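To fix ideas at the outset, we first show an illustrative case, written as a sequence plus integers encoding its fold:
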Amino acid sequence: MAPPTEKEKSLRGELYHAFTPELTAERTRCKHACTRFNNAGEVARRRLVELWRDIIRDNRPLPPPASSEEEDDALFAEEPWVEPPVHIDFGTNVILGQNVFMNFNCTILDTCLVSIGSRTLMGPNVSFYSATHPLDPELRNGTKGPELGKEIHVGEDVWIGGNVTILPGVNIGKGATVGAGSVVTKDIPAYHVAAGNPARSLRKIATNMDPEQGAVSEEKAESKTQGAEGPMASQARKLEDADTRAES
């Protein structure tokens, strides 16, 4: 049996060398595809979908053009909406579900698979880092040493605030909310609000979408106008009170 390639090792989460001709060529291809997407300017929705699919190497044929621009745009209503610019390593290890919104300046280091579930919303400057390096500097050895990665999975109906960083191996459960500026180092359960650096779960979200909660009364259901800033502010007040007590 032939030994595994560096690419095969990377996808399995094993130590691999990133600067082989094959992997360097794949990153270069993706970089140029991102540049074309980012510099597209004012083009039709069809063209943006085509350019996005070029980044992730999705070779499915587009539907035949409709008779009007409005009708043609409607053909892509279920496609992810990605705001440029984006910055992605390989592209081939990225999966976005339907109706995903990715705001501008998203960075995805997709050494391993990064999957984002349908109807998930992201603020600007969100980063997904599936790549990591050995702690031992002798083994790390700059561009000559090996690196590795761990998959990142985001469930459906998640809301990720701006400037959030998601680290290797993290799973974010369905319906969760991640507060702006958080650094997510470990899994977040479904239907929970999490925030902070490192992010931690603040409380559960009351919603009829959660089968474990059963029918949620109108009094207990989350306010239709409340965002993650509510639980984050509450947590900040608790921390301030704790600091005050510690100083007294």
User: Anything to note?
Assistant: The first helix runs from residue 6 to 11. The chain has a mean pLDDT of 91. DSSP finds six helices and 18 strands in the chain.
